[in-house]
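Journal club side-thread
Mid-discussion, someone asked how the predicted structure for our own chain would compare to the paper's figures. Pasting it here so we can look after the session.
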Amino acid sequence: MKSLPKEITTYLVAHALEKRSPAYLCIGRNAVLKEFGGDTARYGIGSLTRGSSALDQVPFLEGLLPLRQPSLVLPCVQIDSGNKADVHIISDGSKHWVLLLSIVEEEIEHLHLLEKACEHNTLHERHTKILDQYLGKELVKALDEGQIKICESGERRHVSILFADIREFTAFSEMNPPEVVFATLNHYLDAMIRPLLEESAVVDRIMGDAVMGVFGILTMAVSPPHQAVVAALKILTAVRDMNQQLAKSGKAVLEVGIGISTGPVAVGILGSTVRKTFSVVGHHVNLAARLQDRAEPFEILVDENTYKEIVAYQRGFRETDIVLKGVTGQVKAYAYRMQAA
């Protein structure tokens, strides 16, 4: 660097050190503190003793000395006192100079902004993973690309609703320790959610030991009732296969019941300014939930609308009239039963 007039260098030094509360340490061989000066009290190291180990008196220097390069700059180091400082270490033959410069308000604000940005990125990544896991990557992609739009004001959609519930799980949870309960629940939820996502459902709710899937939000080549019934069959098969493995290892097994209803519902975004979520509401949501309540273990109960559109699977279902809680009169439903083992 070309030499500068004394007035310029004086200004640059004063400007660089303004509000920085500089302090310095001079450390000799064997990390012995030779001298110190400046505002050391600002960094909580005001009581220093010459001729003693610098590492014992300034612990954050542990591992940094001796320096194997001409200089080292460590920005925003947390000093033991709780203060943050930029630390400059300069090697000078047998000595090391350590310069401490406090963080100015502008830098602190900048660090806060960086932390906020990191938090935002982390939350965004976490949110994306949650969307991928519970809504399915196809829905996330469609929402991002504007292929489908879900208005907060709501809209009417013709969909199929599926509810799947683990039978007797409350009794199981009361008889087993929490770690067993949650490990078991996670196994069963995986067996229930994966088929829903494979058939392009939107997993609208996970309510303890029950899940709700919505078919018909994503455009597919097959009808929503077809998707829902295929997903239901996959769920029962996955649970049955898992139960066989659990039984072989001497573990308790549980069973699942499923209800499906098809028809128009209101689709939209519900919630407050703090938390919003995709949801569907309407008669067929309630009907699917009531059918699930009445389903026997390893049974699928579907309403008449669903049955009419699953021609390829009708042979496996039998007609039945049932009374549902909250629904006036008998309801015509169709039942499919899978062998538990």
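Post-session note: The chain is about 35% helix and 30% strand.
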